[in-house]
Design brief:
Layout lengths: L4 H4 L12 H12 L6 E5 L6 H13 L13 H5 L10 E5 L6 H12 L8 E6 L6 H12 L5 E7 L7 H4 L3 E4 L5 H15 L7 H9 L3 H13 L8 H8 L4 H13 L2 H13 L4 H21 L3 H4 L5 H14 L1 H17 L6 H19 L1
Parallel strand pairs: 1-4, 1-5, 2-3, 3-4
Length: 370
Amino acid sequence: MTTALYRRYRPETFGEMIGQAQVTDPLMTALRGDRIGHAYLFSGPRGCGKTTSARILARCLNCAEGPTDTPCGTCDSCVELSRAGGGSLDVIEIDAASHNGVDDARDLRERAVFAPSRDRYKIFILDEAHMVTPQGFNALLKLVEEPPEHVKFIFATTEPDKVIGTIRSRTHHYPFRLVPPAAMLEYVESLCAQEGIAVEPGVLPLVVRAGGGSPRDTLSILDQLIAGSDESSVGYERAVALLGYTHGELLDGVVEAFASDDAGAAFSAVDRVVQTGQDPRRFVDDLLERLRDLIIIAATGAGAAAVLRGTPTDELERMSVQAQAFGSERLSRTADIVSATLDEMGGATAPRLQLELMIARVLTALRAII
């Protein structure tokens, strides 16, 4: 049994974090300058590195050569807090979702009084901190405000607004963000190279899109594709089917049908969507994404490759031909109609009808422009 990718590649230093320079740079500067706070609040979307950064900060603070911005990786504390370690007695991780009441807060206060068993600091990491009740936070308030010298707190949450203001105001707040697609694509490409995994063109951009900017979600999706592929490579066809995206050939067919005013081909594409059991809303979303790409190509020309990173060269050439056949005005009008249809499909009970009406509207609008 293999370990999940997101666990095997969990960062162990701030330098290994991707897309979070707004957090890692000031934290490393503070550590180098020995300007360490007693309480930190890490907030942001799920899977973007909050708990991992809390563990890295704990490593930095309790490293035998620290406090340091780069843990040595060899001392007892660093080894115990590594991705393969079993955890440290002096770094206590608490799931606030299940330990969120006054009694839990009182228990934490009692534990905080005792000195660390071996390391420099006793560090409490409260994950899902927004789940702590107001009464629980109030029971912690005095301790967070004036903790013993040997105690540090790190709160991690996806909803910082639910952490009461009196606690928030006593922490150094670091907001995490979703990782930009370009940085994520570069990361998964390097990871596949390290793992020796062959991936067909077009697969990794789909993985990055499905991951939504979350490194953990992205690696979980990639892991699933690798597990379900043969030893030769991760195939595009299988990735499209598993992730539920519309196949590029079908999108090409619809776009070219619009450009050439071929109503038969356009309605046939809708029939394929329905007959193959695809989600109609996903199809419209993917079509809108394709139109966005064509608008970028029409506007930037040869510079589109820098914006649409990860798109195979042959696909860029094909989309360039499609953009020229459309023209900027017709592309913009088509995108408006597709976007409006996507909004209307939220509670639609007859998705095929919605798709066919969208096709009719687009063809009518394009004929009016000619």
